[in-house]
Every structure is written in C-alpha cells, then in structure tokens.
Amino acid sequence: PQPPHSTTLPSHFMKGAIIQLATGELKRVEDLQTQDFVRSAEVSGGLKIDSSTVVDIQESQWPGFVTLHFVVGEQQSKVCLDVPPEHPFFVYGQGWSSCSPSQTAQLFALPCHRLQVGDVCISISLQSIS
Amino acid sequence: NVEPRSVAVFPWHSLVPFLAPSQPD
Predict the structure, then answer these.
(1) Smallest Cα–Cα separation from A101: which of A112, A117, A115, A88?
(2) Taking a C-beta distance cutoff of 8 angstroms, is the pair A20, B10 a contact?
(3) What are phi and psi of B14, to 5 degrees?
(4) Residue A8: predicted pLDDT
(5) I need a labelling partner for A32 at 20 to 30 A (CA). Which of A12, A38, A65, A124 fits?
(6) C-alpha pair distances (Å), A63 with each of A4, A6, A97, A108, B25
(7) Which letter does DSSP use for residue A106 in this model?
(8) Percentage helix, strand, coil for chain A under 3-state DSSP, each rounded to 5
C-alpha cells in the first residue's frame, strides 16, 4: 500500500477560514453546521452526502497516522482512511471531531470533540445517475 | 498605503472526505 500522500493538512481547517457553501453563502469553518453540508450537496448537483460510521480506529502502519475504518452510505461499503490524528471530521449533530482534539486545537485553533467508534461523519460521493 | 489583503475562500466540499466505495470486481 502507498503511504498517505501528505503530512500537512490544508489551511481550510484553520479557525477563521472562510468557506463558501454551494448556495454562495460564506461562513467560517468553525460556524458550519450539519445543515450547511446537507443543503450544499442538495444544490450542488452531482455530489451526495453519505453517512460514514466510524467502526474502528487503529494505529496506522505509517508513523504519525491513524487508520480510520468506515462503513459508508446505504450500501454499507467498507472504506479505510489513513489520516494524521489532528484531521477533523464533521460528525452529524456534533460538529468537528478528531482523534486528537488537543493537536487539532494546537495546529488549527479549531475546537473539536474526540472522534469515537460509532460516530457518524459526513462524507461525499458522486451521485449515481439513474 | 495599505495593500488590500486577499482572503482565501475554500469550497465546502474540500472539508469533507470523498469516500467512494470501491467497485466490486
């Protein structure tokens, strides 16, 4: 397997970063709510929001990373992701969450909950054409 | 003179992972 391609996260997770929703509305990253993602997917076309449930969190084979195991969408597909522990995910009804909220706070000043098995994260996929 | 600061604006979909299920063979 290939190692994760980057050890630095983009600055859009930095507290105060300006995010443009698909409606055109601008919000700060820390102010985003579940509905902002849902609404954006609805109006963007071609993208759909999936519910991705965390089923396992393990140490990665790559130093400094964790491996997250998700089951994704209605089909309950299994997907693994190697990410740095400070990587934030948006959990339904809870908001930003990471495996290491303290590191996320240190690097991005973004307040986070601790990501746990059973959390349901927002992810996106391509909308299938019927 | 104060130069206007450019502010980066990021698209919403850059914040959430793209988790495409692997296609069955």
Answers:
(1) A112
(2) yes
(3) -75, -10
(4) 64
(5) A65
(6) 10, 12, 21, 21, 32
(7) H
(8) 20, 40, 45
Where helices occur in B1-25 by DSSP H, the ranges are none
Of residues B20 and A32, more confidently modeled: A32
DSSP state of A4: P
Q: Does the beta-carbon distance from B12 to A13 stay under 8 Å?
A: no
Whether the pLDDT of residue B2 is over 90: the answer is no
pLDDT of residue A35: 95
Contact list, A47 vs chain B (CB under 8 Å): 13
* CA-based nearest distance B24→chain A, Å: 10
The low-confidence residues of chain A, meaning pLDDT below 50, are none
Total beta-carbon pairs less than 8 A apart between chain A and chain B: 75
